[in-house]
Amino acid sequence: MKIELNNQDLIAPCGLYCGECEAFQDGRCEGCISRKGLCLKYTEICKIYSCCVDGRGHRFCSECQDFPCEKFTKFFNTLTWYNEVVGNLKKIKNIGTERFLEEQVKRVKELIKCAEEKRIKHCSQCKEWPCEKLKRPPLVPE
């Protein structure tokens, strides 16, 4: 199965790039936007999509005057993830969605290639993780 990584809908309102997630790569999920925020892993606890998109009519949380709000900071409760998504949202604002997406696609293709070379399906199965390519936990649905 060929996965299509170059889709702006794979950029969640919170700044995560869903194309990296194992559920997306395995064809079990099409990303936050396609599921209207109901990501397989976080269906019960993520209130970001409904607040950002449905409630406030924004595409990204960073467009909101209340950003970062309690929903955002509560969900991204580790500094590593919080810094990454805030950095992603800043980058989207500075370079635009298209360029951000190009960077993410390139990065994820490198991660997929690395996994293939190691004869594993996903980064989460790598014995060398965390590595230079992925310095924080991989996106893995529960």
Helices and strands in order:
Layout: H1 22-25, H2 48-55, H3 70-75, H4 79-95, H5 97-117
Overview of this structure, please?
Helix content is 39%, strand content 0%. The model has no long low-confidence stretch (mean pLDDT 86). With 142 residues, the protein is mainly α. Helix 4 (79-95) packs across helix 5 (97-117). The longest helix is centred in the last third of the chain and has 21 residues, at 97-117. It has one domain (8-125). 25% of the residues are buried. The protein is built from 5 helices and no strands.
Shape: globular
Distance between the termini: 22 Å
H/E element string?
HHHHH
Helix/strand class: mainly alpha
Please give the number of β-strands. 0
Domain count? 1
The number of helices is 5
Q: Gyration radius, to the nearest Å?
A: 15 Å
Helix content, binned percent: 25-40%
Beta-strand content estimate:
under 5%
Uncertain regions spanning at least 5 consecutive residues: none
Summary, kept brief:
The protein has 142 residues and is mostly helical.
Tags for this model:
single chain; 142 residues; mainly alpha; globular
